[in-house]
Design goal:
By secondary structure, the chain is mostly beta strands. It has one helix at 2-41, and strands at residues 44-50, 54-55, 59-69, 81-87, 93-100, 105-112, 120-127, 140-146, 155-163, 166-174, 185-192, 195-199, 204-205, 211-217, 225-230, 241-245, 255-260, 273-278.
Length: 287
């Protein structure tokens, strides 16, 4: 009888150890799988620091790139090459460069010769090949202006709201001393790729606080729209021209995000949920 009890005890201990080892192995494999998934599915975050917000004719654009791991916010070890693209107002690619990174950092410059970069607005876009596997919003994008900066003495605060096919434009002109340009005569034109949407022959006059309001009808709100402000005539190349995109801000295109406390919502459990609403122009909207 004693032999049977001893045998049963040894068998129970062996079975328990075997089960524990199997359970431990399962947990380890799950942890390993989760780690591998995190390594192979972590997005990257990229930021470009530019030396200026606007550039002169035949100027040089200097930049520094910072590439982070999207989860740890440490230097990314996934990519070591960043692609940088410059495109004009018509979204035509002007320049494409490859930048090699070291420990998530890199710097360089791009010449802006007049033959390739005439006066106007441009967009700089930067990304890695790995970032193309994720949402395009993770890619870096910014706009800058190229022109004769010595001729431009206006500071322009420009806002636009597009509702249905009507665009409401509001500009405020000030000098470098922040004083408004009151009673200033200007020509404001609005243009799409297929031609002028608005082109008035008579100049408009700014208000006492340098403000100018205008409402125009847009033929096709899926095509980019650009407004231009002229001191002289539309066709006078000797007069400065200010160009800026009309940002669509359609309510039906707003980005609505629900942000539960802790990152997750648990079934049948009350929780606090934040709501974030962002318009097409990047500004927050009231709920």
């Amino acid at each position: 009888m004693k032999k049977i009890v001893i045998f049963f005890g040894v068998w129970a201990i062996a079975y328990t150890c075997s089960y524990a080892q199997g359970y431990t192995g399962t947990v380890n494999s799950l942890v390993s799988a989760a780690g591998n998934y995190s390594l192979t599915h972590t997005p990257e975050k990229l930021y470009l620091q530019l030396d200026k917000t606007n550039y002169g004719i035949n100027d040089t654009l200097w930049f520094k790139a910072y590439l982070f791991n999207g989860s740890s916010l440490k230097a990314s070890a996934i990519s070591n090459v960043v692609y940088i693209e410059l495109s004009n107002e018509s979204n035509e690619l002007q320049v494409r460069r490859m930048l090699t990174l070291s420990n998530g950092l890199g710097s360089g410059c791009i010449a802006l010769p007049k033959r390739d970069f005439p006066e106007g607005s441009y967009t700089i876009r930067a990304y890695t090949n790995w970032m193309r596997n994720f949402d395009e919003s993770l890619m870096y994008k910014a706009q800058f202006f190229v022109g004769d900066l010595n001729r431009y003495k206006w500071l322009i605060d420009f806002n636009s709201v597009v509702k249905d096919n009507d665009a409401q434009l509001r500009l405020r002109l000030t000098g470098t001393d922040k004083r408004p340009f009151a009673s200033q005569q200007v020509l404001l034109g609005v243009k799409q790729e297929d031609g002028w949407v608005l082109r008035r022959d008579k100049p408009q006059v700014t208000s006492a606080n340098g403000q100018l309001d205008l409402t125009v009808s847009i033929r096709n709100n899926t095509v980019p729209v650009y407004a231009s402000l002229h001191k002289g005539s539309y066709d006078d190349s000797n007069e400065p021209v200010y160009r800026f995109p009309v940002i669509y801000n359609r309510p039906e295109k707003a980005d609505v995000q629900f942000l539960p406390e802790g990152g997750y919502m648990v079934s049948s459990t009350p929780s606090v949920v934040g709501v974030k609403i962002i318009g097409e122009n990047g500004d927050g909207l009231n709920l």
